[in-house]
Each structure stands twice: as structure tokens, then as C-alpha cells.
Specification:
Layout lengths: L10 E4 L4 E9 L3 H14 L3 E5 L3 E6 L4 H4 L7 E10 L2 E10 L6 H18 L6 H40 L7 H28 L5
Antiparallel strand pairs: 1-2, 2-6, 3-4, 4-5, 5-6
Length: 208
């Protein structure tokens, strides 16, 4: 699927609080119209208004339910736009704050795509909302398939580990409930690691 080629120009910053994306442009309209159009655009992408005044616009998307949805648009994000009026034009600086997303390149490509298309929307140019929605769904299905593969692989490895532990640990005096706890913890760790590994491979992790 073809992403807007300008998306790679979006600045991506990693902070202690999370990942931040930055995009700046000049709207050829007065500040009130620019703010209204920007709000309208991001509402179409699922954002809800938090606060709006003369020079700033704050919106949020996602409720932290990405464990059920798995798509980038389900993850909690906050958008802060600052406007600098200049006669009939308006400088627009957008900062997108990611709180539980952006660890994968595929996610950041969609977020960056949405930001650069905002500039086109304010310039009155056509925006391909359908393509962005399809890309969001594409990532969701990639995560689903990768997680399923990781779960199966993790379960297989966990069964091997459990068989080894049940053979070795009793000889060390570890039996009963303690043996059960250890095998349960090991099982969860192996499955979780395999699911994360599968997702990193499918979506191209931003972290090594």
C-alpha cells in the first residue's frame, strides 16, 4: 500500500514520556479558518476535541483499548496544534504525542501520513481518507496474524520447557504448588516473548 511520500519528512522524537511526531506548514487562510479546518480534519480521523482557543487546538484519540483492537488508531494519542497568525496566512505546528504506540515503523508511517495529509486538507487538496483507513486495517490484521503465530510458537516452546522443568526441578526438591508457579511463570514469559518477537518482525520494530 502506497503511503504519502512526504510522510518520511515528519520529525520523530523519542522522549521519556513516549514518541512525539512533529509537522509544520503554512495555511493560506486566517487563523480561525485554519483552526476550524484542522479540527474538522482530525475529527474525521477519530479524534475528539479537548480544548480550543485562538492559538492552540488539543484533541485526543483512542481509549487505551488497543489490546482488543490492535490497530494504531485505537491507541491513545494526543494532538496539540499551535497557530501563528500572519495577515491572511497562518503558521501551523502540530505535535502528535503517542502514549502506547509508535514502537513499530508501520504505526509511525500511518501517524506521519495523517499529519502530512492535514496540510493538503487545509490547502483544499484531495485527501485519501479511504487509503489511510485501509492501511490502519492492514496493520491491525498484521498484528493479529503475527500474534497468532507467536502464540503457537510460544506454546510449543513452553510445552518443551515445562517437560524439562518437571523432570529437573523435583530432583532439586521443588515440587507441588511451587513447581506449578514456576512452570506457569515460564509459560507466560515464553509466550509473551514469542508474540512480541513476531510483531517486531512483522511491523519492523523501531527498537533493537
Amino acid at each position: 500500500m502506497t503511503v504519502n511520500p512526504s510522510a518520511h519528512l515528519v520529525s520523530i522524537e523519542e522522549t521519556e514520556e513516549g514518541i512525539r511526531l512533529h509537522w509544520r506548514f503554512t495555511a493560506l487562510t486566517p487563523v480561525d479558518q485554519a483552526r476550524q479546518r484542522l479540527q474538522e480534519y482530525f475529527e474525521r480521523l477519530g479524534y475528539a476535541l479537548v480544548d480550543s482557543n485562538e492559538n492552540t487546538l488539543t484533541m485526543r484519540r483512542g481509549a487505551g483499548n488497543s489490546a482488543l483492537d490492535w490497530s494504531p488508531r485505537s491507541k491513545k494519542t494526543e494532538l496539540l496544534a499551535r497557530f501563528t497568525p500572519s495577515k491572511s496566512r497562518t503558521g501551523v505546528a502540530i505535535e502528535l504525542r503517542l502514549y502506547d504506540g509508535g514502537n513499530y515503523e508501520a504505526e509511525c508511517r500511518l501517524y506521519a501520513w495523517e499529519l502530512v495529509e492535514a496540510e493538503q486538507y487545509l490547502h483544499g487538496e484531495p485527501v485519501n481518507f479511504k487509503a489511510m483507513k485501509q492501511y490502519n486495517h492492514h496493520i491491525r490484521m498484521q498484528v493479529f496474524r503475527a500474534s497468532a503465530r507467536g502464540f503457537v510458537a510460544g506454546l510449543f516452546l513452553a510445552l518443551i520447557a515445562i517437560a524439562i522443568l518437571r523432570r529437573v526441578l523435583p530432583g532439586m526438591g521443588i515440587e507441588g504448588w511451587l513447581l506449578g508457579v514456576i512452570t506457569s511463570v515460564v509459560t507466560h514469559i515464553i509466550i509473551f516473548w514469542q508474540v512480541k518477537r513476531a510483531n517486531r518482525q512483522a511491523l519492523d520494530s523501531r527498537k533493537s
